[in-house]
Amino acid sequence: MKFAKIAIPDLTAALHQRGFSYMRRDGRGWMRFAGELRLKAKNYPCELAVSPGLDEFPRVWLTPVPPGRPELQPHLSGDGYLCYLALGSVIFDFFDPIRQTMACLDRAEQVLEDILAGKMVEDLAEEFHITWGRDWCMLDVDERRPGSLDAYTFGGKTSIVTDDRARTHAKLETIGLDLPKVKLPAFRVRTKARPMPLQESWPPKTMQAFLKWQNTLDSTCRKKIEQRLMEMFRVKVPRVLVLIDSPQVQYGVAVTLKRDPAGTDNKSSLREILYRLPIHRILVCRIDDRYLAERNLPGSKTLAGLKVGLVGCGTIGGYLAEMLAKAGAGTIGGKLTLVDMGSLEPGNLGRHRLGFDALIKKKAEAMCDELRRVAPGIDAAAVVGDVKAANMGPLDLLIDATGEQGLTDWLTWKYADKVPFLSAWVEGSGLAVRALLKAKPEHACARCVSQPPLRDPYRVFDVPPEVIMKGHGCEGLYVPFPASASVQAAALAMEMVQAWLDGADSPSFRTRVLDQSREVHFKDCSPQRYEGCPACAT
């Protein structure tokens, strides 16, 4: 960057005016400056590191760390590193590095002021995972309930806990791993207390220190942990994994239940021996289906546990099937049924979710295979054949992604009075995408808004576009539009599924216009049923 060559001397001069002097460049080329953070009571010596490209936030270390402080303080590491900004919370303006650097120093001074005044102790809870440990335990447990579980170790410091060996095996298999043969018992204890690191003697190194810390958080939780460990000690369990299920974060410890650790004698009780045992601190990362579905929309409902039918695994249905799976469809006792009688043909490849490896395969079956790859353990069933003769079983939601008006009308007539029914399609040659949900008897169906007298009031554009067809010979006629239109139709449908799950009072008929050059006639709304509609009128 040309401006950087000019800005570096200017930045050095600006820092000099603030009392900072240039020291050296470190091994990464960052420029190091020595100076002070100016607080109300006194100044604290520090070292400032500036990136060579002036395109990152500067780093700050206290030199030395203030004496007499607690062992653990928020945003201040043991080597004096001061975390004055949360990564990703602010964008560094590299076009104005001087002003930006001065603002960072101001922020660092304010954060240090608050730290030393004891105003940011609660932030330690947010930094718990940083101070607890580096080894991980993968948790694949569908239900967040306390009790005994099976844990497996990979031979190193990584482990996995499961309540369904087959499901977990399928997940590991997709990433080239196998479920280890070495099994150890694990148990889970629930608490409402957030883990707050201590400011002294942290982190705990023995079971006694761990239990003492747990007692400060939740005495009931501590009692349960100690009771279970004593029971396992008495029956000579060699090693056990303890998992703590707390709000927002799960963590644990592994302990080897030795009866003769160093420093014990024959007169020591089992409890005294237990207290002296060293612990291995473990962070827990969830890989269960419920978490994967809920993480991106915390507080919102998912499709987990519901029975969902998707008719049409073509250009819209392929993308939509994956979105449904990532929203929890087919998990936690639910089921995702895909219905399509066609095969993936060469002409489909340009705008289909499936690729060349699925060529000439039945779309429904190939899409189920793909879903099991991206969401191992999903209960996805393929129905290859005419939907009019298919038995999809009981459903909580039915989705039509065929884009075929005649079939949509039949599905409406057959199912719309029994189950919430969503239709999604591409308008014309990719000019717009539309979706309509009929979840209430009084709402219009797709046929209501596509036929007189409601057709004209609910058309997309002031001037209806001409329908353009392409194709010849053996490939037949088709409507040309890009894959991006299919993706947006699927996304609009998924948006409406989420609104339905959350019980939101939102428009049942929605449109997203892709051709902005045309005059738009339609606005999202909830049209009322046409009483003369043969598909949905009663």
From TrEMBL:
Gene3D superfamilies for this protein: NAD(P)-binding Rossmann-like Domain
GO biological process terms held by the UniProt record: cyclic threonylcarbamoyladenosine biosynthetic process
Top-level taxon: Bacteria
Pfam families, sorted: Prok-E2_B, ThiF
Domain Prokaryotic E2 family B: 71-132
Domain THIF-type NAD/FAD binding fold: 297-514
InterPro entries documented for this protein: Prok-E2_B_dom, ThiF/MoeB/HesA, ThiF_NAD_FAD-bd, Ubiquitin-activating_enz
Transmembrane residue ranges: none
Any one GO molecular-function label of the UniProt entry: tRNA threonylcarbamoyladenosine dehydratase
Protein's UniProt name: Thiamine biosynthesis protein ThiF
